[in-house]
Design a protein that fits this description.
With 224 residues, the protein is mostly helical. The chain contains 6 helices and 5 strands; from the N terminus they run H-H-E-E-H-E-H-H-E-E-H. The protein has a 3-stranded antiparallel β-sheet. A hairpin with a 5-residue loop joins strand 1 (50-52) and strand 2. Helix 4 runs antiparallel to helix 5 (183-192). It is elongated.
Amino acid sequence: MNNSVGNTGRVLWAGLRALLVLTLVCGVLYPLAVTGVARLAFPGKADGSPIRDGDGRVVGSELIGQTYDLPLKDGQKTPEPDLRWFQPRPSNGLGTNSVNTQYEIILSGATNRSGDNADLITWVTDAKAAVVADNSTAGHPVKPSDVPADAVTSSGSGLDPHISPEYAELQVRRVAERNHLPVDRVEKLVAGHTEDRLLGFVGEPRVNVLKLNIALRSLVAAAG
């Protein structure tokens, strides 16, 4: 009887020691070591790839998109886009079943609707009409065929911070007009913030909207 109790006690104590050691190694020392190496080798990425404005303030992450909307008016449920700025791709999955709205990073996801879904077709059609209306300027109307896919659909996560160069170029005249800037200056701004394919062949050319709008703010300030 005593031997049985003693053996049980030794087994439990051995298990507890193993638990404590593994908790210390795997739960404390290993994460600290990995974090330390990451911060030494990739300080920006380890801290969430922050983006700073001209004053050195962190204004976001280059991995997460942001919205550029006007303040809500009385009785308004959905804010209108602030058309002085380059707009990102839709962030709400264009549907009520999306788990992400307005680039909230707690959850992410898309509609998971098929391409022939009637609701999705309606959402995309309405979004395309809005893009055409918002970006048409005097003497330069935007045609529905000019609207690229990323202008009317969200990414798989709903958090994509990039737009295609085609969508950025589509917005140039509207942004220039709203900020009283020469069109060619805004076009150069887009060209300077267009990132090429990774290693020349991975992915697609893209424009980080937050970085572009920070540069636009500086350009507007300099012109004023």
